[in-house]
Sequence to fold (102 residues):
Amino acid sequence: MWQENGLVFASKHGTELDAANVRRALRVILKRTDLNPDEWTPRELRHSFVSLMSDAGVAVEDIARLVGHKGTVVTEKVYRKQLRPVLLEGAETMDLIFPGED
Fold:
């Protein structure tokens, strides 16, 4: 729950949850899915959210605001993992260097 005090995860009483309780609650939820609870953490979900928003064309300023960053530097350098454009650019470059038969 997002509140004026900046809490992202709050208890049913509106108090702040500590990190261990958030991780524990996430593991309980993940065990009900096909996802491996040992591979997913709140941090992984945060990185995935930023990357998916970025791949969908959401402006980095909007993504930074959504994840609570004061500016875009941390969002761009730490969280945004845009593999698809990098892989595509690399593949296109290799096609230019080593053209195949059409």
